[in-house]
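Cont'd.
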Amino acid sequence: MPGKTALVNCEVFTAIDGEVIKNGCVVVEDGNILAVGKESEVDIPQDSEVIDLGGSFVMPGLIDAHLHLQGFRTGDFVKEPLLTPFGVFVARAVNDAKALLDAGYTTVVDAGGLVALHLREAVREGSIVGPRIVAAGPPLSQTFGHADTHYLPSEWVDIRTTKKLTPFASLLCDGEDECRKATRYALREGADFIKIMATGGVLSQKDKPEYTQFTRKEIKAIVEEASKASRIVHAHAQGAEGIANAIECGVRVIAHAIYMGDNEFNLALEHKAVIVPTLAIVDKIVKEGAKHGIPEWGLRKAEEVYEIHIETVKKAYKAGVLIAAGTDYVGGWLPMGENSIELKIYSERIGMKPEDVLMSATKAGAYAAGLENQIGTLEPNKKADIIAVSGNPLANIDVLLDKDNIVFIMKEGEIYKKTV
Ligand SMILES: [Zn+2]
């Protein structure tokens, strides 16, 4: 929105350090934040449009640092991609993108998949409504890796050889040279960051979360190619050895992080890595996965790891490891728009302080997105991604779960919703 806007009569949570500015004010100019402070102290330009937020709680737009805008509707990811045309997944994901913005999510990080690459452009040009999308595109996996869909012929798995495009087509690569080439291919497809599979997983058929995938040499080659193009790397990493490999080779974001000990906590602190635990999906699979068609192997492994996972995240939090909120939701029964359930789990099961819960979905999320200089906090020169909430999420995180409580949504200076 060109021109200046002043948001007044609100409490402002800047997400810089957990403090709240009472009787606060945020001034926005041409999509960016110009000033933040107490209303009595901020110099509100004469020509500003003044918006009274009725005493609501203002904070940076929410960020989900790990999801997949894939338009899935069941847990049967074996059959659904084979039976559903790619365009149908895209059409569904258009609705999912809108649901995310409605829920106050102004940025999402798509941690692997093809649909988001297309949606990102459609959102940018204004053809559809949705959050800013930061997309990995096709993830890199070794043969027999987490994204080498084990029950399909290899040629159907790799985006370069498949004849049936699925939302999760990947790039299979083994050895340093193939890893470099796959990284370059992902960049060519438009990847904002590179996603790799550094261990086995819960939802891959024939491996286990503890299995280490890719060698250190391979990961280093990928990180090097990514950094030449100023991109960061995210790793799906669940076992301790794979997590240590990834962090020591320069991977910034550790997704899932089921098994970590003191060594891995120290490495994360030393290398400024951030973990994105994605507890929401595990919780949902354990409670409802059978009903929605999650295959037997996925259910069994999810049940095996859930409590261990919770304990690891609790210890990581105590050790001071940075945690960014991400759900791993894909649509359907893992519904876009209900992503703040991850924050409720942090509050109730991890024992995170309220301000840290909110910063996991703002400041830390921006770091995981590689956009820490642009979004995630309310301070001058950042993009004006701002929401206002009726009720105080520091006192009760549940207020973020009902989209009707998100009374004002601004993305890069554009007002998307105002019901206050
Ligand atoms: Zn994921």
